[in-house]
Write a structure and sequence with these properties.
Number of strands: 0
Radius of gyration: 19 Å
Strand content: under 5%
Oligomer: single chain
Largest sheet: none
C-alpha cells in the first residue's frame, strides 16, 4: 500500500485522518529500524552512530526526505543508513549479523504488537474520530512493519537479507556479483509487476491472519 491507495479506500473527512495515520505509521517503522541498528551497534562496541546523534527514536535524525516521498507515492524508498564501523565491532561478522537481524526482527515485533492493539480497537466506538484514528494507525503500523520485515528478508542487494547472505559466502560468489549489478532492477521489477504483493499476501494469510484470529479469540 502507498499513499495514492488511500484515496481509493477513504472519503473525506476520513481521508485526512487516514493520510496522517499512514505517514505517522511509516515514520515510526523507519525510525525504529534505524534506532535498533544504532542501539545494537553501540552495544557491540561501535559508537559511531551514537557520536552522530543516531542513537535516538527522533525521526528527524533518521529520515531521508526524498526516500520518504518515494515511499509515500511510489511504494518504495529509504531512510538514512546508520553508519557502522565494522573494525570497531567486538565480534566482527557476528556483530554485523546481530545488528542486521535485530533491525529486521524489530519490525516483526512491532507488527505483532500493533496487531494486538488493532484487534483491541474493535472494542472502541470508531465513529469517534480519535478512536478511528487509533484503529487505522494500528492497522497501518501492523501492515507496514510486516511489509518491511518480509521485504528485507529477500536476498536481493541492497536489502538486509542480501547483506546477511554476503557475510557467509565468498566475495567472489557469482550470485553476489550478479546482485550487485542487477539487484536494484530486480527490486523494481518485483514492485512494478506486483510479484512481491503475491508473496506478501501469502505470508499475511499464514502469519498475520492467524495472529489476528488469536487476539480476537482472547479478547472477544
Amino acid at each position: 500500500m502507498f499513499l495514492i491507495g488511500l484515496f481509493q479506500q477513504f472519503e473525506m473527512p476520513a481521508l485526512i485522518v487516514a493520510i496522517f495515520a499512514y505517514i505517522l505509521a511509516l515514520i515510526l517503522a523507519l525510525s525504529t529500524r534505524e534506532f535498533v541498528k544504532a542501539f545494537v551497534a553501540n552495544r557491540e562496541g561501535d559508537v559511531t552512530a551514537q557520536a552522530m546523534g543516531r542513537l535516538t527514536l527522533n525521526p528527524f535524525k533518521h529520515l531521508d526526505w526524498l526516500g520518504l516521498i518515494f515511499l509515500l507515492f511510489l511504494g518504495f524508498g529509504w531512510s538514512k543508513p546508520v553508519p557502522i564501523n565494522v573494525n570497531a565491532l567486538k565480534n566482527g561478522k557476528k556483530s554485523v549479523v546481530k545488528i542486521v537481524s535485530a533491525s529486521m526482527v524489530s519490525n516483526l515485533i512491532l507488527a505483532i504488537i500493533f496487531s494486538f492493539f488493532y484487534a483491541l480497537t474493535f472494542l472502541l466506538d470508531t465513529s469517534v474520530t480519535f478512536f478511528f484514528f487509533l484503529q487505522i494507525l494500528c492497522s497501518f503500523s501492523m501492515s507496514i512493519n510486516f511489509v518491511f520485515f518480509v521485504f528485507h528478508l529477500l536476498p536481493i542487494y541492497p536489502l538486509d537479507g542480501f547483506l546477511l547472505l554476503s557475510l557467509f559466502v565468498s566475495p567472489a560468489n557469482k550470485f553476489l556479483n550478479f546482485m550487485y549489478r542487477y539487484g536494484f532492477w530486480i527490486l523494481l521489477v518485483l514492485l512494478i509487476t506486483n510479484i512481491f504483493d503475491y508473496i506478501l499476501l501469502a505470508l499475511e494469510l499464514l502469519i498475520l491472519n492467524p495472529l489476528l484470529n488469536l487476539w480476537a479469540l482472547i479478547l472477544f
